[in-house]
Structures are given as structure tokens and as C-alpha cells.
Write a structure and sequence with these properties.
The complex is a heterodimer of chains A (about 250) and B (about 325).
Chain A lengths: L6 H28 L8 H21 L1 H14 L2 H5 L5 H6 L5 H20 L6 H27 L1 H4 L3 H11 L11 H10 L7 H7 L5 H26 L8
Chain B lengths: L3 E14 L3 H11 L1 E15 L4 E5 L6 H8 L7 E6 L9 H4 L2 E5 L11 H11 L4 H15 L14 H13 L5 E5 L7 H16 L4 E5 L3 H7 L2 E6 L2 E7 H5 L6 E7 L13 E6 L2 E6 L4 H11 L2 E8 L2 H11 L5
Parallel strand pairs in B: 3-7, 3-8, 5-6, 6-7
Antiparallel strand pairs in B: 1-2, 1-4, 8-9, 10-12, 10-13, 11-12
Helix pairs in contact in B: 4-6, 5-6, 6-7
The chains are: A mainly alpha (about 250), B alpha/beta (about 325).
Chain lengths: ~250, ~325
């Protein structure tokens, strides 16, 4: 609601976000003028990956991204968390979804349109099972990102200023919109097993491209579960170390 | 059941010290000096339901830290604390519905939105039944005198108006325990007076326990029945506000207004001269000598007016801050 209070700012921010998405689309077009495939990924596959990434990215930024990566660390540092802690609401839920980003909600609609356009290019050749799996993996991607951002935000209880970590992750996360095939050796293993960015867009996209085994689907859910359990425990432990700020 | 019970309540923390300037910044970046602080050291406190208690002390005494432990914001490092039967840092929903915490330094209302919007938010989050919400809101709006500013964005209000809106929001759910941390901080005299009046009115009913910290002695004198003085993390005095000012260790003040010409030598040696102003002089004397000194002045000198009173609370409290000792 706060963001809609200033109309010119609201409109300009939405325009900027749509332009940014358009530029990335042109980037992929330019790349595929020179090559036909990136690994196993065709132009349409890469567009699906990009559109899926955009959907996950926007869903995250509409809901919890700004709250966890910027607002919560700032509230921990300044002591503003105090006023949230005395409310009879689930604290983590409250601080994670305190501000729903209306700007990104309106920017999200063109992303959905873009995903529909990509599906149209691919003749909507997807089964119901594939679509259900796609949706489940999208939710899984959001939960994975939530866990990572929560871990980063929780470090603020000790290091006070965690925005540096949030910026690092924000940049790393963008790797998720490219096929993992562009990496070799260490980085491929790193992004597959240690910081599984493949969970963000590649796994859901592969669900639609019929390129997923049952093992890899289960492994995706287990990996997210592990990150989530760790994040929640870390958060609870962090709360016991909250020092507020002097008045 | 006590409203608040603490036993050996303690809180320690640490931070890295930073030297001033650019070189200091670089130095502390690589070799910061770790400093540990015992903010609260074994506080024992029992507050009954319906009491209005002033919690006072110099900056850094540990009063806000104690309040925050009682409100469930901070985890104690040691000891125990119970508020209306709950352990605060567990932050159970039932507990949080029974308390409220207002600080004069920060504003919890939505900056860009009117207070009415935040009141609606409170109604939902505290699950206040509609009829009770309407009744409480009406009563509090009248008490706070904010009827004409309900739809004005918070950023357009004065600090005093914002604070009154915040108090209304904080009390909508009719909490049993009200923690007020310097509620009149940075307010002008009129606004501070209105806030005091508001708190006093709420306290009159006797079913709210109010714990108030303040550096403004008028807040304490006009609102509280009991005063807890804390210094360096320890309680140094816990008394009824009237008993405190009548305590034997504190002097009496004698205010004399002379009739016609007078000389300072007339009062020298009778007590400590606090202030001299034209025809008026203010003396401080031991309590047991106050009556005889006043009588002697009255009988030996032309006096227009004379009065005996307790030392102001501010001065009494100052003595605790200086000495850091318990009242005996």
C-alpha cells in the first residue's frame, strides 16, 4: 500500500522493470543469432528457462525478497524489530511478508504473458502431469530461495550488517536464468550440489521439457527441505542473540 | 499472580569498540577490541497487578534492557522473569495479547498511512471483537484527543500527535501490562502533559499495570505510585514515591521570602543555600531541624512568606545516580 501512495514513482518503477526484462530477452535473441544450441538447450528451451526464472524471481520479489534481504536486517540493526516482536503474530511470517511489493506485482503480469508466449511457441505440448510437476517445482524453488535469504538475514543478529551477503546472493542467483551447461568442472558441481541454483528455474523448466528423472525430482525436494530446516533452526537461534538497539 | 516477577534477572552482551577517524576505522576493521557489558545484574522485582511503577536511572543504567526482557524482546542471560504468569521470551500468543510496549524513540505506525489504517491492522492482529474494538477505539480517541487527525498520514503529524496515535494503537487490545519506554521523549511541554494525562487516566481504572521509564521527573511524579531506581544494572531503590521523598536521608527545603531589606548573613550557617533570588532564598536543612530553623527565621527576621517542603524528586534521584548505593 505504501508504494501506491506515490503515483509517478510507482509508474516509473514498473516501466523500468519491464524494460529490464525486455533487454534480457533481446540479449538471448542476440546470442542465438550466433549459435543454435547451448548444450542441450535450444532457443525455445532457453526462453522457457528465462521465462520461468522471471516468474520465480517476481514471485519472490513480490512476497519475501525485499523483506528478508533488506528490511529485516535493517530492523535487526536499528532495533525496529522490537515493535514486531511484541505483536501476537507469527514473527517470522510477519517479517517475511510484511510488505507485499505491488510494483513487482504489476511488473509480474508481463512476465506471465511472456511465459504464455513461450508456451505458445512450444505449441503447449505439455501433459497435465508435467504442468503439475512444473508448479510443484516452482513452489520448491521459492521455498529454496526463502531458506537461503532467511539464512542470510539471520546472520544480521551477529554481523549486524548482512546486506553484503544479500548482494552476493542476488548476483549469484541471476546465474539461475542460464542453462547450467554453460559451466564446467568446479562451478558446475558447486551450483549443482552446494548452492543448487538449478532448483530455481532449470528443474521446473526441465519438468516441462520431459528431461527429469524421479530421483532428481525427489532430490530437489530433499535439498530444499534440508536448507529450510537449517534456516528455521538458525533463525530461532538468532532470535536468542537479538540485542535490539539502545534508545 | 504477580504482574511482573523477576529473580536475579541479568543480561550481558558484547560489541566491538571502534576508534574515531579513518585510521581508527581501518584498525577496528582488522583488530576490533571486544568489549563486554553487564547491562543488567541480578534484578529482583515484584510488581502487582494495577501498580504504576516508574523505572528510572541514568543513560545506560539497564532500565530499557530490563523492560525489553520483560516484554519478551530480549532473552535474559541469566535469572528468571515472569509476566502475568508467562515466560516472556517464549513469546506465546496469549502473553503478547496481554502486553504492549511503547517507546518514545521509535514510531510503530505506518509512516505514509493514516493512524486509522494502523488501528484496523491492530484489530486484525490482536483479534479484537468488532464491538469491543469500536468501544475501545471511541474511548481512546476521546482520551487522546485525536478525533480530527485519524485520516492524516503519519508523516504530516507533529511528534506529539504521532505519539498519542501510537498510544491509542498500543492500548486498543486493552493490555494488562503496559511498558512505556520514555513516552514523552522529545515532546514539548504541552504534548508531554497530554501524554501524561492519558497514561494517568488509563492507570486510574486499576486493572492495568504500567511500567514507565523516563528522564522527565514530571512523568514519574505525576503518573507513578512507586519508583524503582536502577543504576549500573542494579536496583538501588524501590519505594513508594511519597515514602521516598520523605525518607530520613533526604533533606527538607525551606523557601523564605523576606519583607524589606535583608542580608545573606541572616541565613548563613542555618543550612545549605540552594538559591538566592532578590527577596527570596531557598535553604536545605536536615529533616529534624527544619521546623526549628523555620521558626528561628520567622521570629528573628521580617518574613513575608515561608514554606517547608521535601526535596524535589529530581534531586533525590540524582543522589542515587551519584552514589549508586541502596537506600538504607
Amino acid at each position: 500500500m505504501k508504494q501506491t501512495a506515490y503515483r509517478p514513482h510507482f509508474i516509473l518503477m514498473i516501466t523500468g522493470k519491464v524494460v529490464r526484462m525486455g533487454l534480457l530477452f533481446f540479449f538471448f535473441q542476440a546470442v542465438f543469432l550466433k549459435v543454435n544450441h547451448i548444450g542441450q538447450w535450444t532457443y525455445d528451451h532457453v526462453l522457457l528457462l528465462f521465462a520461468t526464472f522471471q516468474v520465480v524471481d517476481y514471485l519472490m520479489s513480490i512476497t519475501f525478497q525485499r523483506n528478508l534481504s533488506s528490511s529485516l536486517p535493517s530492523r535487526i540493526r536499528t532495533g525496529e524489530l522490537d515493535s514486531r516482536m511484541v505483536l501476537p503474530a507469527h514473527l517470522l511470517f510477519f517479517v517475511s511478508f510484511e510488505e507485499i511489493d505491488m510494483m513487482d506485482f504489476f511488473s509480474f503480469l508481463p512476465s506471465l504473458g511472456f511465459l504464455a508466449y513461450v508456451c505458445y511457441r512450444m505449441d503447449f505440448a505439455f501433459s497435465l502431469t508435467q504442468m503439475i510437476l512444473y508448479t510443484m517445482l516452482l513452489v520448491n524453488a521459492l521455498l529454496f530461495l526463502y531458506a537461503i535469504l532467511l539464512i542470510i538475514a539471520t546472520t544480521s543478529f551477529w554481523i549486524t550488517q548482512s546486506s553484503g551477503l544479500a548482494v552476493i546472493f542476488d548476483n549469484l542467483m541471476k546465474i539461475g536464468r542460464y542453462p547450467l551447461d554453460i559451466f564446467e568442472g568446479f562451478w558446475k558441481i558447486f551450483f549443482l550440489y552446494f548452492l543448487p541454483l538449478v532448483l530455481i528455474a532449470q528443474m521446473p523448466s526441465q519438468a516441462l521439457l520431459k528431461a527429469l528423472s524421479l530421483e532428481s525430482v525427489l532430490l530437489s525436494f530433499v535439498a530444499t527441505g534440508v536448507f529450510m530446516v537449517f534456516a528455521l533452526r538458525f533463525w530461532r537461534w538468532g532470535l536468542t542473540h537479538y540485542l535490539s538497539a539502545s534508545t | 499472580m504477580k504482574a511482573i516477577h523477576t529473580k536475579n534477572l541479568s543480561k550481558s552482551y558484547w560489541f566491538y569498540e571502534k576508534e574515531a577517524g579513518l585510521s581508527g576505522s581501518f584498525k577496528s576493521l582488522f583488530r576490533g577490541k571486544k568489549v563486554s557489558v553487564d547491562a543488567v545484574q541480578g534484578i529482583n522485582l515484584d510488581i502487582e497487578i494495577g501498580e504504576i511503577v516508574g523505572f528510572i536511572g541514568p543513560n545506560g543504567a539497564g532500565k530499557t534492557t530490563t523492560l525489553k526482557m520483560c516484554a519478551g524482546i530480549l532473552h535474559p542471560s541469566g535469572g528468571e522473569v515472569k509476566v502475568v504468569g508467562f515466560i516472556p521470551h517464549r513469546r506465546e500468543k496469549g502473553f503478547l495479547k496481554h502486553i504492549t510496549f511503547v517507546t518514545g524513540q521509535r514510531n510503530r505506525l505506518f509512516w505514509d498511512l493514516p493512524a486509522e489504517e494502523y488501528f484496523e491492522f491492530c484489530k486484525i492482529i490482536y483479534e479484537i471483537p468488532a464491538a469491543e474494538y469500536r468501544r475501545n477505539l471511541k474511548e481512546l480517541i476521546e482520551l487522546a484527543g485525536i478525533g480530527d487527525i485519524l485520516r492524516v498520514p503519519q508523516r504530516k503529524l507533529s511528534a506529539g500527535e504521532r505519539k498519542r496515535c501510537e498510544l491509542v494503537a498500543a492500548l486498543l487490545h486493552d493490555p494488562k501490562v503496559i511498558f512505556l519506554d520514555e513516552p514523552t521523549n522529545a515532546l514539548d511541554l504541552i504534548s508531554a502533559g497530554k501524554i501524561r494525562e492519558f497514561i494517568r487516566e488509563k492507570g486510574k481504572a486499576g486493572n492495568h499495570t504500567i511500567i514507565l521509564t523516563s528522564h522527565n521527573m514530571a512523568d514519574i511524579e505525576q503518573v507513578c505510585e512507586r519508583v524503582v531506581i536502577i543504576n549500573k544494572g542494579k536496583i538501588v531503590c524501590d519505594e513508594g514515591i511519597r515514602e521516598l521523598s520523605r525518607h530520613n536521608r533526604f533533606k527538607k527545603q525551606i523557601r523564605i521570602v523576606f519583607e524589606g531589606p535583608w542580608a545573606l548573613s541572616q541565613v548563613e550557617g542555618l543550612g545549605d543555600i540552594v538559591r538566592v533570588d532578590a527577596q527570596e532564598v531557598l535553604l536545605e536543612v536536615d529533616r529534624e531541624r527544619a521546623a526549628s530553623v523555620a521558626s528561628r527565621i520567622f521570629s528573628h527576621h521580617p518574613v513575608k512568606d515561608i514554606g517547608i517542603m521535601d526535596q524535589p524528586l529530581e534531586k533525590i534521584i540524582e543522589s542515587f545516580f551519584r552514589n549508586g548505593e541502596a537506600v538504607g
